[in-house]
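Lecture 7, part 2: worked example. A protein chain together with 2'-deoxycytidine-5'-monophosphate.
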Amino acid sequence: MDGINNSMKKLSMIAIDGPAASGKSTLAFRLARSLSYLYFDTGLMYRAVTWLALDRHLDIKDEDAIVRLAEQTPIDVSAPSLDDGRPCDVIVEGRDITWEIRKLEVDANVSAVSAYAGVRKALTVQQRRIGLRGKVVMVGRDIGTVVLPDADLKIYLDASAEERARRRYQEILDRGGEADYEVILRKVIERDYLDSTRAIAPLKPADDAIILDSDQMDADTVFETAFDLCK
Ligand code: DC
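Predicted complex, written out as structure tokens:
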């Protein structure tokens, strides 16, 4: 193990980007655990702002109000306090919203919220501060391109919309929920479009990213391939 750690010690910032449900969070979590690095999912922050805006019945189209919310609300992401499958706790204003931010209503509005320049600025500053401390596996859409352009390793994890919708559908069923595959597929395609065509920090691989396609690889193979890249 020491040998592995020694050969990896220069890799301090690992950026993992990709579209919704490509498996990037699972990959980042496993890599972070294997390397004893911090796992940080930046999507949680965009989801937390969206959830709070909906909870306060704000108009998602009211850019000024949403940006103020992102600037003023501390989002606390910490190690999991419950053994219910969560990779971390997400706490806002003393409320545990870890599962709330996964709801379809948040899915439907988070692309609009994350397209606002002021929201991205407020959250990017926090993400960069955490990333530059090093020993981090950071996951999102713009980590390799904007948040940590100097990351030591950049992976862009891709998969077809159909495969990603199938995974999200299964995830909901596994948690005891109900879902319609066709609806999920439509929303995945819609969100891809919004995330990759927005003006600021659109979803795209960094020029120096290594692209992995997880359609033909199960989670273990994706992990092993990425882990080899860390050596
Ligand atoms: O990875 P996710 O599905 O939890 O991300 C939720 C939304 O947040 C997604 O639609 C795009 C946005 N996002 C972003 O714009 N930039 C990031 N670094 C992470 C997420």
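The CA atoms of residues 13 and 131 lie 7 Å apart. Residues 20, 42-43, 46-47, 110-111, 114, 140-143, 191, 195 surround 2'-deoxycytidine-5'-monophosphate (CB under 6 Å). Keep this in mind for problem set question 3.
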